[in-house]
Structure formats: C-alpha cells, structure tokens
C-alpha cells in the first residue's frame, strides 16, 4: 500500500512541476505583452501640433506593435490551453491512481 501511495505522490509532484513551468512560461508571455502595450501607448503620445510625418511615423510604429501583440495574444492562448490540458491529464493520473489503489 505504501508503494502505491509513493507512486501517487510522485505522479502528483511531476504534474505539479510541469504545471508550474507552464505557468512560468505564461507569466513571461504576459510580461512581454505588457511591455508591448506600454510601447504602443508611448508611440501614441505624439506632441500636440505634430506634423503629418510625425503622426504617420507614430501610426506605423503602433501598427507594428499591434501586430506583434496579436501574435503574442495568440501564443498566450495556445500556451494557456496547453497548460489546462496538462492539468486535466495530471488530475486523471491522480484519480486513476486512487481508483486502482488496493483497499487494504
């Protein structure tokens, strides 16, 4: 019985480690996205009375940042989905371990 419990605890530890690593990756993506959004806001700060060239340059910068941000949001969505799937798998491993454990 103790052997089965050790295996169950070991599975839980591995699952927890994987989820924590995934969450760290998601946090890095969120931090990068936050930086991109700040850069877009900064690019939008055009001085009052700026000429057309400055305005157009600012718009081009914002469009580039926006495209990059869209890609990051998509990547974050995929990473979050992966993390959720791995959590579900880990839960199933634990549940199966509990179900298969002998009733001594």
UniProtKB/TrEMBL annotation:
Pfam families to which the protein is assigned, alphabetical: DUF677
Domain of life of the organism encoding this protein: Eukaryota
Entry GO terms, CC: membrane
InterPro entries: DUF677
Keywords: Membrane, Transmembrane, Transmembrane helix
Chief location category: membrane
UniProt-annotated location(s): Membrane
Keyword check for Transmembrane helix: yes
Assigned protein family: Belongs to the UPF0496 family.
Protein name per UniProt: Uncharacterized protein
